[in-house]
Amino acid sequence: MTIRLATPDDLDAIMAIENASFPRDAWSSEAMAAELATEYSHYIVDEEDDGIIGYAGLRSIRGSADADIQTIALIEARRGEGRGRAMLRTLLAEASARRAREVFLEVRADNPAAEALYLSEGFEEIGRRPRYYQPDDVDAIVMKVKL
Fold first, then answer.
1. 86: nearest Cα among 107, 117, 41
2. In which region does residue 53 sit, left (phi positive, over 0), alpha (psi from -120 to 50) or beta (all else)?
3. How far apart are CA 92 and CA 90, in angstroms?
4. I need a surface site. Which of 72, 88, 97, 142 has the fewest CB within 10 A?
5. Which domain holds residue 59?
6. Interval 78-126: pLDDT, tens
7. CA dist 23 to 27, 76, 135, Å?
8. What's the farthest any 2 CA atoms get from each other in the chain?
9. What is the arithmetic mean of pLDDT over 62-71?
10. Number of domains in the chain
11. Are 12 and 33 within 8 A, CB to CB?
12. Is the pTM for the entire model greater than 0.85?
């Protein structure tokens, strides 16, 4: 398993995981392509011999005091193996390298596995956004960790 910087050539593989992981509220291919191309984003992929099994993204302006984890997703068959944790830690290291002091994220209130991962890595709940995830009317749990 290799975690590496994502490139525009990874867009199709990323979008396949995005659409499978978030069937009702997936990002568009255009939005993801823009994320991969901008200098204030840092996207990574988790790759094995048979292809990309996951991806994750951070939005962070170098020198800014805060950063945001945009997404972490894995193919369903590979969830629960620690690969999401490895990508999360890679993003947190990048945020630290960019001199961020706090990292924020939102997680679906109906995703207890992801919430537990973030809590175990030091994130704390700081608020909720009612019905944030549409069209499912699911609340977003807003979380923060200090670096």
1. 117
2. alpha
3. 5
4. 97
5. 2-146
6. 999 999 999 999 999 999 999 999 999 999 999 999 999 999 999 999 9
7. 10, 13, 11
8. 41
9. 94
10. 1
11. no
12. yes
Structure tokens at 58: 């951070």
Q: Is 20 helix (H, G, I), strand (E, B) or coil?
A: helix
What number is the average pLDDT over the span 47-68? Answer: 94
Each residue's pLDDT tens digit, 15-51: 999 999 999 889 999 999 999 999 999 999 999 988 9
Quickly tell me which residue has 């191309």 as its tokens.
Answer: 37
Chain mean position to CA 19: 14
Strands 102-108 and 66-74, how do they pair? parallel
Alpha-carbon span 76 to 40, nearest angstrom: 28
CA distance 107 to 104: 10
Q: Is residue 1's pLDDT more than 80?
A: no
Residue 98: which of 53, 147, 131, 133 has the closest Cα?
A: 147
Q: What is the CATH number of the domain that holds 48?
A: 3.40.630.30
